[in-house]
């Protein structure tokens, strides 16, 4: 039986190798197609990058896995191809990264914080990136030095220029999939760390409440922004059970 194509869309500033902890198991059920954000210097480039992989591989029915920034692009893709995207698997997801200042329970970051991050990135990219990487992990995960392990691995595989990273932050500021969510017909699985400081769990709750089709939200205790790295086996178990793999 042929495997279903699965597009993998990483987060901001992340290489495709970030998915490595889950790849051996995913390959049993899916034909993996990796998308990265290299070469993108404008807002339209993110969706253009995804569409180029879809068209290049002549995809008819396929599934999409997105993390963080990649979840935004994944939601937009699933809304664009409602009858073609079978499963939508999202980690640390958001339909709008910038928070609504009037919201009682913030689901994102204030715009001024991301603008400041852009300025810091231009001055000292290494320090800015490392600070962001550390913030992806919960206190429990830091006690296990999982943040240090991740950063050491990432330093060996950081493919993005400062210009590309700034374009990614601009995308996070401007992009919104809030109006796309109710167009999605896919089976949606959201996996979110309860201690996620990058995209609060409320962001996934908003997505889950707006999806008209089948949706499951799995919250992981004491877990930060990158559960598929810190708890790959638990994430894989959730995926297998939810998607009946």
Which key phrases capture this entry?
245 residues; alpha/beta; Rossmann fold; 6-stranded parallel sheet; 11 helices; 6 strands
CATH fold-level name: Rossmann fold
Count of helical regions:
11
What is the N-to-C succession of helices and strands? Answer: EHEHEHEHHHHHEHEHH
Helical proportion, percent range: 40-55%
Q: Kindly give the count of domains.
A: 1
CATH architecture: 3-Layer(aba) Sandwich
Query: What is the alpha-carbon Rg in Å?
Result: 17 Å
Biggest pleated sheet: 6 strands, parallel
| Rounded average pLDDT | 93
State the shape. Answer: globular
Tell me the β content: 15-25%
Structural class by SSE content: alpha/beta
Describe the strand arrangement of the main beta sheet, using strand numbers: 2-1-3-4-5-6
Protein name: Biotin biosynthesis protein BioH
Domain AB hydrolase-1: 5-231
GO molecular function, one term: hydrolase activity
Keywords: Hydrolase
